[in-house]
Amino acid sequence: MITFLSGGTGTPKLLRGMQKVMDRHEISVIVNTAEDIWISGNHISPDVDTVMYLFSGMLNTDTWWGIRSDTFTTHDEIMRLGIDEFIGIGDQDRAVHIARGEMLRNGMRLTNITKLLCERYGVRENVLPMTDTEVTTQVQTDLGLIHFQEYWVRAKGRIEIQKVVRSFNEPPVATQEVIEAIEASDAIVIGPSNPITSILPILSCDGLREALRDKVVLAVSPFIGDAPVSGPAAALMHASGYEPNSIGTFNCYAGLTDVFVQDIRDPVEVSHSVRFDTLMVDEDKSVALAQEVLRLIKAC
Ligand code: GDP
């Protein structure tokens, strides 16, 4: 078994390839939940949804969020009624959020809800939220301390970030299922996700780092030069005191990685790194990188 740490874009692109080159039951994914948010009374878990939709074959891989060919009738009507629903939520996608919200209100654990939804959608992989309690990534801006989604989706990342803060009522603890998946794995892959908003929240769950201690850990950089392949990672790295590049990414995972993978085009040198084409512009590229990752793991 291989366990992946994932956000909602970079690592899912790698998972798209992994599911083609290994037994799908041998894939576990620990998914970031620090971007979760309640919208219009329902619970969105954006990274869990993306991973679940990917594995069920429903994901819109043009945008890497939402369901392919979804309609937006409810969202359009809600906006017409004057409610500022700042995330465009598709109708089918909303059904998932309604179901999850309802189950959470009934006291179910997010882990069990995810398992149930994945079963309903025929997912064969093991999709695990990092924790069962609420934790939220917020950013300090001139507008005050705002949810990451307010910064990235509503403000389109166009405002300065001074600081990144993770808030919670109780410190997040890695679930028993997460720890068991790591223990049962031959290797752990930190995919090319945003180190600050996707990977560090997972690594910060109590018990997670200890579980990784004796494991082979491979990480893939989401940066090429001083820019991420997509998204706001550079601003977030900067605001968190890390260089916005592969060295900063390597430092985010200090003491954890046995193998660090950088893109062949990356001018930044991380010593002892392994170089591959990590730009997963289509499914073939995802499969090619997945094969290299698998080869590396077998050689460890
Ligand atoms: P989010 O939850 O939507 O922010 O998604 P992730 O955290 O999983 O992924 C965002 C990161 O993926 C960004 O920092 C991108 O640089 C990185 N990324 C996206 N596509 C690729 C790719 O094809 N190759 C690599 N190496 N990184 C990628």
CATH homologous superfamily grouping? CofD-like domains
Rg measurement, Å: 18 Å
Biggest sheet strand order reads 5-2-1-9-10-13-14
Bound molecules: guanosine-5'-diphosphate
Averaging pLDDT over every residue, what do you get?
97
CATH topology grouping: Rossmann fold
- Structural class, judged by helices and strands? alpha/beta
The CATH architecture is 3-Layer(aba) Sandwich
Please report the total strand number as a whole number. Answer: 14
List keywords for this structure.
300 residues; 3-stranded antiparallel beta sheet; Rossmann fold; binds guanosine-5'-diphosphate; globular; alpha/beta
3D structure, described in words:
- With about 300 residues, the chain is an alpha/beta fold.
- The chain has one domain (about 1-140, about 170-300): CofD-like domains (Rossmann fold).
- The chain is about 40% helix and about 20% strand.
- The protein contains twelve helices and 14 strands.
- The chain has helices spanning about 10-20, 45-55, 75-80, 90-105, 110-120, 150-155, 175-185, 195-205, 210, 235-240, 245-250, 285-300, and strands spanning about 1-5, 25-30, 35-40, 40-45, 125-130, 135-140, 145, 165-170, 185-190, 215-220, 225, 225-230, 260-265, 275.
- Strands 5-2-1-9-10-13-14 form a seven-stranded parallel sheet, with helices on both faces. The protein has a three-stranded antiparallel sheet with strand order 7-6-8. Strands 3-4 form a two-stranded antiparallel ribbon.
- A hairpin with a 2-residue loop joins strand 3 and strand 4 (about 40-45).
- The radius of gyration is 18 Å and the shape is globular.
- The two termini are about 15 Å apart.
- Bound molecules: guanosine-5'-diphosphate (GDP).
- The site of guanosine-5'-diphosphate has 23 residues, from helix 1 and helix 8.
